[in-house]
Amino acid sequence: MKLHLSAICGTAMASLAGLLRARGHEITGSDQDVYPPMSTQLEALGIEIRSPYAEANVPADADLVVIGNALSRGNPEVEAVLDRRQSYTSLPALVAEEFLRPRTSLVVAGTHGKTTTTSLLAFLLDRAGLDPSFLIGGVPADFGRSDRLGTGPHFVIEGDEYDSAFFDKRPKFVHYLPTTAIIGNVEFDHADIYPDLAAVQTAFVRLLHVIPRSGLLVAGTESEALRGILLQARCRIETFGLHAEADWRATELRTADGQSRFRLVRKGRDEGEFTLPMAGEHNVRNALAALAAAADAGVAPAAARDALAAFRGVKRRLELRGEARGVTVYDDFAHHPTAVAATLAALRSLGGPGRLVAVFEPRSYTSRTRVFQDDFARAFAVADRVIVSAAHLPGKVPEAERLSEAELVASIGGAGGDAAFVPTVDAIVKALMAELRPGDRVAILSNGGFGGIHEKLLRALGRLPAEAV
């Protein structure tokens, strides 16, 4: 078949393109914002990205057009498809019918931690020789790509609660035919489509309702909002967390040299010590969820121990981008206050004499609204220094609901932090070069490309003589 993917550079859409290419389909694609790692992944597949959006991008002879959920009426490609009466579908609907129905679907959902947990679960199954297929909303370092069509019976997929398409407002994950589902946590997010936490909970209830009675739900019951909906599940439930009541529990947790070590207790049974080469309690929780789901797929904890210790993480999830003149630069996808707090806590746990410097681009719809302004202030106050950039495309948010960068900076100061508003990437790099010192850690937080700030900062650091840094 000849398929065109509109909004192909989204993490899930780029992954779908790889899976479809592996099935032998002819793929074309288009997008507006093109940046790594998805742009480079598509380039490696030989898939041309047509940009910007235009009617001519969509081949008139395409058998099927996949319309990403970022597009709506008024987009020239959407209008062309409707005018031509071409066949079209959403990403999750196509994934379900093309790949999931004949396989055992392991769906990883939750407000936070989905990408790391999905990557961990796929890696544990892979190291056990099960050759899983997967579709992940990021690029695991161990696989080097976000998708794979394996020969085994399992398909591991990241399940997002965002809507499916402009013509299908259901959460994407309700399409994914879960045999096993992980829900790590539930919090308010996606303020552009959900008015409040109750609406988010309703979306996750829809996921609970499509898990078969013979299936398994792996639930992070430290999340109060998730606990509040668990009674609506009609399948087996196994819980995980750091609390004593969890079925899968981490005890004796300690962090050293960027690694987390813990004892795994499974339903009261000591399974021994495990090592995860990642810092942060949130990552230990992700590992517990992956171990629980892997066990149900036939990979016992003892068999998963070595694989967990070998896991190399995911691009853009607390990813070390480089070090220059004693300054380390990290890239992280965090764009919600809880995720920001977890990321900064993980970096703080590494110790060392230098400062923790956070650079934040409000880019997701929710982070560009006022709804989390005070929560962001508390999350960032733990850093030694915070730089807030101008929000990305602020005009997309109604003025009365829009984040004020100046007020956020003032709120961080009121919470005990040290913050400044620096609007542009080049100005941020210049400001950092005037104050960074050897030993400092810089965490750059954005769910977009952020103008290539990581490379610009590392280049600037590398050009300076040691005494100027």
Overall description:
The structure is a single chain. The chain has 469 residues and is of the alpha/beta class. The protein folds into three domains: 88 residues, Rossmann fold; 218 residues, Mur-like, catalytic domain (UDP-N-acetylmuramoyl-L-alanine:D-glutamate ligase, 3-Layer(aba) Sandwich), CATH 3.40.1190.10; 150 residues, Mur ligase, C-terminal domain (Protein-Tyrosine Phosphatase, Chain A). It is 31% helix and 24% strand. The chain has 14 helices and 23 strands. Helix 5 crosses helix 8. The longest helix is centred in the middle third of the chain and has 16 residues.
C-alpha Rg, in Å?
22 Å
Q: What is the number of helical segments per DSSP (H or I, 4+ residues)?
A: 14
CATH class membership of the largest domain: Alpha Beta
What is the number of independent domains? 3
Proportion in helices: 25-40%
Strand order of the largest sheet: 8-7-9-6-12-13-14-15-16-17
CATH fold group of the largest domain: UDP-N-acetylmuramoyl-L-alanine:D-glutamate ligase
Q: How much beta, percentage-wise? A: 15-25%
CATH architecture of the largest domain: 3-Layer(aba) Sandwich
